[in-house]
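STRUCTURE:
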């Protein structure tokens, strides 16, 4: 019974985080300003402290925008490299 409860809690938390990422992607796709998108990302990271950075990667796998948590961590933003691009292309 406890294991099932933990499984449900984890599933709910992951669903919530995934939906938040989808909302951030839709904002970028709908043409919201970069500042607004970055503000929304920072708000997301304040509520989910395990995230250090967020990037919007377009359909060509080019990093368009990025934002970091405001906690003094060194830059976590990464550009898409060739192996990662091949992996991402294999997903579609």
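SEQUENCE:
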């Amino acid at each position: 019974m406890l294991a099932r409860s933990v499984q449900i809690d984890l599933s709910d938390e992951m669903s919530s985080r995934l939906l938040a990422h989808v909302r951030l992607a839709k904002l970028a796709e709908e043409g919201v300003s970069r500042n607004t998108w970055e503000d929304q990302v920072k708000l997301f990271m304040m509520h989910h402290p395990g995230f250090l950075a967020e990037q919007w990667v377009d359909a060509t796998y080019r990093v368009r925008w990025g934002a970091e948590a405001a906690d003094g961590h060194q830059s976590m933003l990464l550009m898409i490299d060739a192996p990662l691009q091949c992996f991402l292309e294999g997903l579609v």
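REMARK: The radius of gyration is 15 Å.
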